[in-house]
Design brief:
The longest helix is centred in the C-terminal third of the chain and has 6 residues. The chain is an alpha/beta fold. It has one domain: Roll (Flavocytochrome B2, Chain A, domain 1), CATH 3.10.120. Strands 1, 2, 3, 4, 5 and 6 form a 6-stranded mixed sheet that branches. It is built from 5 helices and 6 strands; from the N terminus they run αβαβββαβααβ. It binds protoporphyrin IX containing FE. The site of protoporphyrin IX containing FE has 23 residues, from helix 3, helix 4 and helix 5.
């Protein structure tokens, strides 16, 4: 009953009705204090993760607010992230990118 009275905002977790964002909205979250990224068409909010990332936040910063599939695939050093790192993404998913 409480859930009906105070519905949670869409998180993107429900594959039937993910929250949909365009690149302009994502671009508003382009700092380490507020860091969204698009990876393979899905939108993530990594704000709570940047301080936990194994490499310094400065490596993430250029990708905040942007399409970051390349960053995820290369780490900026030509090496893909591990399957374990890829598996962490779901925890930060907030939705998907709008189709163009
Ligand atoms: C998209 C921009 C990103 C860049 C440029 C980047 C870069 C890096 C670099 C330079 C390292 C250390 C070097 C190495 O381990 O080979 C690293 C490690 C790691 N990163 Fe990232 N990272 C990014 C995003 C993420 C995200 C979004 C996550 C998870 C939510 C993540 C999770 C990890 C983990 C778990 C490691 C340890 C090594 C591994 O499991 O592959 N990274 N990253």
């Amino acid at each position: 009953v409480l859930q009906v009275l105070t519905p949670e905002p869409p998180t993107g977790d429900d594959p039937d009705s993910p929250a949909v964002f365009d690149l302009g909205e994502v671009a508003e979250h382009d700092s380490l204090d507020d860091c969204w990224m698009v990876i393979e068409g899905k939108v993530y909010d990594f704000t709570d993760y940047v301080g936990q990332h194994p490499a310094p936040p400065s490596v993430l910063e250029p990708w905040c607010g942007k399409q970051a599939t390349e960053g995820m695939r290369t780490k900026g050093i030509g090496r893909d992230h591990s399957p374990a790192a890829w598996a962490m993404l779901d925890d930060y998913r907030i939705g998907k990118l709008a189709d163009d």
